Amino acid sequence: MVVHLLLPGYPPASHLMVDAGRLMPCLPVVCHMDSSIVLFGPPGAGKGTQAGRIVEVTGKPQVSTGDMLRAAVAAGTELGRIAKGHMESGGLVPDDVIIGLIEERVKESDARNGLLFDGFPRTVAQAEALAQIAPVSLVIAIEVEDESIVGRITGRFTCGGCGSVYHDLFRPCKIEGICDECGSSNFKRRADDSEETVRSRLAAYHEQTSPLASWYEQRGLLHRIDGNASIDEVGFRISKILDE
Ligand code: AP5
Ligand code: MG
């Protein structure tokens, strides 16, 4: 029960935050954080594509758990060893592993202005943990139907130099083979972007992640965006929410 944690004088007022209208204690190390934003949506919804614009507008660094896990797999760390099989099968990496990763990330100095979470949280357990460690003021849900997602993901490639996200049809490079942003000609395709794995990722999304939308809606934080529009139009819809 939350009330048992609120002993007189402890935690101090600066170590409390509001979740769903209740005062909750938060970890002292992160209580000085400004509020964070969550980018929510199925695989291929356009979270990574839109993240760059939101970072530019808000100054909140992007934290993509998918990118962190892929870096760990590439580096062959213990985290990467645990995550690899889950990612290859299109399933979720266990909650305790992901929550531990975020607890460490929010301790970094650039987290003070709040963060832009991309692909986290993905379960109610992760959202409950996040509510304890960092205040969230806005959840942007990019909604796209399953039928559009397979085509988006199987056509995706990213710049190995700067991470910019492209698509064979929907966002090709202006000059073929050269990144618009950094000029690199080193491009990558993700190991989990096959049609078969995308279908497993979609199943995991519908079973474990989509219930989070109503969890955040109940807390008055969810803003839904219709993601079935051009990249620029979706960006415009998001910027209107950020302006509110
Ligand atoms: P992660 O890397 O987060 O993948 P994801 O959620 O499946 O999402 P994607 O990165 O595939 O899609 P996106 O929404 O970023 O779309 P993008 O902008 O690239 O996670 C990978 C794996 O790691 C998970 O499966 C899981 O195993 C594990 N994991 C990660 N976080 C976890 C967590 N919190 N808990 C447990 N496990 C976790 O766009 C896709 C393509 O579409 C691009 O080519 C783009 O150019 C194109 N596109 C974008 N917008 C549009 C548009 N409006 N119109 C047309 N094309 C568009
Ligand atoms: Mg992404």
Structure in words:
This protein has a domain at 1-30. Helix content is 43%, strand content 17%. The protein has helices spanning 2-5, 47-58, 65-75, 78-89, 95-105, 124-133, 146-154, 195-209, 211-218, 231-243, and strands spanning 16-19, 22-25, 36-40, 62-64, 116-118, 136-143, 156-159, 165-167, 187-188, 222-226. A hairpin with a 2-residue loop joins strand 1 and strand 2. Helix 2 (47-58) runs parallel beside helix 10 (231-243) and helix 5 packs parallel to helix 6 (124-133). It starts with a helix and ends with a helix. Bound molecules: BIS(adenosine)-5'-pentaphosphate and magnesium ion. Magnesium ion binds at residues 47-48, 64, 66, 119.
Instruction: Tell me the span between the first and last alpha carbons.
Output: 35 Å
Number of strands: 10
In terms of DSSP E residues, the strand content is 15-25%
Judged by helices, strands and strand pairing, the structural class is: alpha/beta
Question: Looking across the biggest beta sheet, what order are the strands in?
Answer: 4-5-3-6-10
Oligomeric organization of the protein chains:
single chain
Poorly predicted regions: 1-20
Q: Shape from CA axes?
A: globular
Helical residue percent band: 40-55%
Task: List cofactors, ions and other ligands.
Answer: BIS(adenosine)-5'-pentaphosphate, magnesium ion
Kindly provide the radius of gyration, computed on alpha-carbon positions and rounded to a whole number of angstroms: 18 Å
Largest sheet descriptor: 5 strands, parallel
Order of helices and strands: HEEEHEHHHEHEHEEEHHEH
The total of helices stands at 10
| Overall residue-averaged pLDDT value | 89
